[in-house]
Amino acid sequence: MQTIQVQTTQNVFIHYPLASVGDRILAYLLDQLILIVFSVAIGFLLIYNGVESYWVWILLLGFPWLLYALLFEIFMDGQTPGKRVLNIKVIRLNGTPASIGDYVLRWIFAIIDLKFLSGAIAVITIAAGGKGQRLGDMVAGTSVIKQVEQKEITAQEIFVVADAEYQPVFTQAIQLKESDIDLIQRALEVNRDIGNSKPMLAVTEKLRTQLGIQTDMPPVKLLYTLIKDFNHLTSR
């Protein structure tokens, strides 16, 4: 499976599997099918109720076709119903969630990508670019990844809740932010689920330097301990 290397804002590289051209086409077709079914149902209702107002027809039929992808991606965190069924989503190449502006750029350029030459432009750019990007993605700095099913994370593995008598090992953990903890969790998941230890090791070295930690504790245990310390120190 082709992957994309994403550099996070903490300068850690994480590999994500790219959504295939086939997955993206199927997601698009599913979304089109949803729109067709919706339009037929609304059309019957309007005819049955004798609605003749041009603006009502435009509002109830035109706007959903125009804004479907944009609104769903904004409110469903980079997914449309079709993308959710295929388990793919839009992300930024720096690892942060895509913004409304990013989704708007993708939506605007979809006119070129998907409407001209029956979508051939999108297929060619996605297949040839190496980062799974159509023109809209290139402009917005986004790509579409395949979400890998994650194993359930137990409290003992990552979301560690310390008891009242717990004594933090590294009090420096109070300096961490929620975004740091999220990065640690993601690095641990990548190490556990696909055996890629590079993000975990990079995060470990970064935190050793950032927090001034000197310990022989193995990386996995150190990161779990920092999460436990952070949760304990910030829950007071």
Question: What does the model show?
Answer:
The protein folds into two domains: 144 residues, no CATH class; 64 residues, no CATH class. A hairpin with a 5-residue loop joins strand 1 and strand 2. It starts with a strand and ends with a helix. The protein is mostly helical. Helix content is 57%, strand content 8%. It is elongated and about 75 Å long. The chain has nine helices and four strands, in the order ββαααβαααβααα.
The overall number of domains is 2
Total number of helices? 9
- Low-pLDDT runs of 5+ residues are 150-159
Radius of gyration: 23 Å
Helix proportion range = 55-70%
* Outline type: elongated
* Average pLDDT reading: 84
**Cα distance spanning the termini:** 45 Å
- Tell me how many strands there are: 4
Order of helices and strands: EEHHHEHHHEHHH
Largest sheet entry: 2 strands, antiparallel
The side-by-side strand order for the widest beta sheet comes to 1-2
